[in-house]
Specification:
321 residues; 9 helices; 4-stranded antiparallel beta sheet
Length: 321
């Protein structure tokens, strides 16, 4: 029997870094997915293959990775973690296909984790409860990373627009963002842990300055949720909130010349708003370009990598033959 599932990546609209200090965050599912296929194997060990990422691995769940070609240990660890919670340990043939770049702030690890868990549950004819799946996927991220927000796995599981409030409670919302968003990403991937630590240290050095900055990001996120919930979205207002948020991220010290170049190029050629999405220090920006998407995409692709980050209403999916 073969079981195949997929889950979308994510992009954070508002709330990066402030969420670490108890402020809310707002993210949405991107229509770029991770696909995981599981098939029972007659061999003694499990194998993982990904043509997209150009790697192969073999492993025994009880002993971990045996052979790994073309180092992708990070992604493999998420798959192993998911299988430890959703599979009985018997040998599998696993195929992974990715529509999103790894390490660019698009939640690739969460998407792989959610898709692997869903495929494993389906393989064993287990009921797939969305809230439980998100919870278990978050457990895997904690297992692999040591610390992780539940936001990424909630977005990959639920799809759509997801709000993480001050109490770490998740809620899903409607949004009207079709055909208006671009993700641009640099070749250099920032280190999330290092960026989070640098913001924490800056806050410790300048609490009277940084605490209001962090609170302001939280207020922007709350305001953005109200705005996005309206049928008649004020697009210029949303873009302005993104630009203000970027100024605050810059003051946290997570910007780079490469990210800044993309941000200002996007605005110059028609984006109403653009900002870092994710941890910064490298990685990705998001640009809100209603009516100017193709023009801004063309400009960003001249110097960097960029994709149309269409809003995905669908979360995790089981694919039946």
């Amino acid at each position: 029997m073969e079981s195949k599932a997929s889950a979308p990546g994510k992009a954070i609209l508002f709330g990066e870094h402030a969420v670490v200090f108890g402020q809310p965050a707002l993210a949405f599912a991107v229509d770029k997915r991770a696909y995981v296929s599981l098939k029972k194997s007659s061999g003694k060990k499990s194998t993982i293959k990904s043509t997209d990422l150009n790697f192969e691995a073999s492993f025994d769940l009880s002993r971990g990775i045996d052979i790994l070609k073309n180092q992708k240990k990070g992604i493999v660890n998420y798959i192993l973690g998911a299988l430890s919670l959703g599979h009985d340990g018997s040998p599998l043939e696993i195929e992974l296909s990715m529509e999103m770049p790894v390490g660019a702030g698009m939640g690739s690890s969460a998407a792989v984790t959610v898709a692997t868990l869903a495929a494993a549950y389906n393989l064993h004819h287990k009921n797939i409860d969305i809230s439980n799946l998100a919870k278990k996927a978050h457990e895997v991220e904690l297992m692999v990373q040591g610390a992780a927000s539940p936001l990424d796995t909630a977005v990959s599981t639920n799809g759509g627009l997801v709000y993480l409030d001050e109490n770490s409670e998740i809620s899903s919302h409607q949004a009207y963002l079709d055909n208006s968003l671009i993700l641009g990403y640099t070749s250099y991937r920032g280190n999330t842990g290092e960026m989070v630590d640098s913001v924490r240290k800056r806050r410790e050095r300048f609490p009277q300055i940084m605490d209001p900055v962090i609170e302001s990001v939280g207020n922007i996120t709350r305001q953005a949720l109200k705005l996005l919930s309206q049928d008649n979205l004020d697009k210029e207002y949303l873009g302005e909130l993104m630009n203000i948020n970027q100024g605050l991220l810059d003051s946290m010290g997570v910007n780079t010349p490469e990210l800044s170049r993309m941000i200002f190029n996007a605005r110059k050629y028609g984006a109403l708003g653009s900002k870092i999405t994710g941890a910064g220090g490298g990685g990705s920006i998001i640009a809100f370009c209603p009516g100017k998407l193709e023009k801004v995409l063309h400009i960003l692709q001249k110097t960097d990598s960029a994709i149309n980050a269409d809003f995905s209403k669908e979360g995790v999916l089981i694919h039946h033959k």
